[in-house]
């Protein structure tokens, strides 16, 4: 096998109730990464598309490139000639894990080209190093779901102790991306360093209830649990018309609606494909009325994560 092509999906960090602890893999959008052998030694990025000229072809300064470099160093194969192509199909600073998807795709593609010596879980540290380049922080709530698929619990970020949770087959997401950019570094900067004991107790109950609902398929419990009382109030002002969009989704039947990752994308979790379409349409109507360009993504929970497509 001289060339491989992979698809690394978008993801929703935090999953509404689990800040830096939960992530959800989406079916779309996502990034495509091509890796091929080259006669010239070392890793090179030969093409990037969809980035509006914003990404570097220097592997040390590119999330996909750095993840691949770190993997090659670990495998003691840094001298092998490999070319990467990075094709972006999602917006930057959208709250959809764009940099994480590229990092995941870079590590997975090179691993696949080499005959898959490591498992997906074993690739997480290398993808994390790529993601850290962009976000400035070591948190796996985008990298882990993009790599592994499903709904992922990060028990401990430092050690990358991650667990895949079950999800009901009819759980769907409607994600609306208003075309304003919020970088993760900026969104983390608005967060207060401390919370009250009451906030901790309330949010822990929400998190626990949501996790139980995933195991049991209890949608009534899920609906009661999908409320973020800590992060959402601090970040909502960064997103124009956020509370109007949230109210529209809720009135349309969404189980819960909040900020996707650091924003500005907004996610509504819904029971069934049709319910997600209705919630998505309601969310869009707010941005349309406000004259804000936006894009809607409808998706089931992606159970597979990154995958080969060639």
Describe the protein.
- With 310 residues, the protein is of the alpha+beta class.
- Helix 2 packs across helix 3 (120-135).
- The chain contains 10 helices and 11 strands.
- The strands form 2 sheets. Strands 1, 2, 3, 4, 5, 6 and 11 form a 7-stranded mixed β-sheet that branches.
- It folds into 2 domains: 3-165 and 303-308, 2-Layer Sandwich (Ribosomal Protein S5, domain 2), CATH 3.30.230.10; 171-300, Alpha-Beta Plaits (2-Layer Sandwich).
- Helices cover 37% and strands 25% of the residues.
SSE map:
Layout: E1 3-13, E2 22-37, E3 43-49, H1 63-74, E4 82-87, H2 98-113, H3 120-135, H4 143-148, E5 151-156, E6 161-165, E7 171-178, H5 184-189, H6 197-216, H7 219-225, H8 232-235, H9 242-251, E8 256-259, E9 266-271, H10 273-290, E10 294-300, E11 307-308
Parallel strand pairs: 3-4
Antiparallel strand pairs: 1-2, 1-11, 2-4, 2-5, 5-6, 7-9, 7-10, 8-9
Helix pairs in contact: 1-2, 1-3, 2-3, 6-7, 9-10
């Amino acid at each position: 096998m001289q060339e491989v092509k992979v698809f690394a999906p978008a993801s929703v960090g935090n999953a509404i109730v689990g800040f830096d602890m939960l992530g959800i893999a989406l079916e779309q959008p996502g990034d495509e990464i091509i890796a091929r052998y080259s006669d010239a030694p070392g890793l090179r990025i030969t093409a990037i598309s969809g980035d509006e000229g914003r990404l570097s072809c220097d592997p040390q300064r590119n999330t996909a490139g750095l993840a691949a470099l770190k993997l090659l160093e670990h495998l003691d194969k840094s001298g092998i000639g490999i070319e990467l192509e990075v094709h972006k199909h999602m917006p930057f600073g959208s709250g959809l894990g764009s940099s994480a998807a590229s990092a995941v795709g870079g590590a997975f593609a090179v691993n696949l080209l080499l005959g898959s010596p490591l498992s997906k879980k074993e690739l997480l540290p290398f993808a994390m190093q790529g993601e850290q380049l962009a976000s400035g922080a070591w948190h796996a709530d985008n990298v882990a779901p993009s790599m592994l698929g499903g709904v992922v619990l990060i028990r401990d970020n430092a050690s990358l102790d991650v667990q895949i949770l079950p999800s009901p087959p009819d759980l769907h997401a409607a994600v609306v991306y208003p075309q304003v950019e919020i970088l993760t570094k900026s969104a983390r900067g608005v967060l207060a360093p401390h919370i009250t004991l009451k906030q901790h107790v309330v949010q822990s109950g929400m998190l626990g209830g949501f996790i139980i609902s995933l195991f049991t398929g209890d949608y009534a419990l899920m609906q009661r649990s999908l409320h973020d009382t800590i992060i959402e109030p601090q970040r909502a002002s960064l997103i124009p018309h956020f509370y109007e969009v949230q109210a529209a989704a809720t009135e349309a039947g969404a189980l819960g609606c909040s900020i996707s990752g650091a924003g500005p994308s907004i996610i509504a979790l819904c029971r069934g494909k049709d319910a997600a379409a209705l919630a998505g349409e309601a969310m869009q109507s707010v941005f349309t009325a406000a004259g804000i360009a936006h894009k809607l993504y409808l998706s089931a929970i992606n159970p597979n994560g990154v995958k080969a497509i060639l």
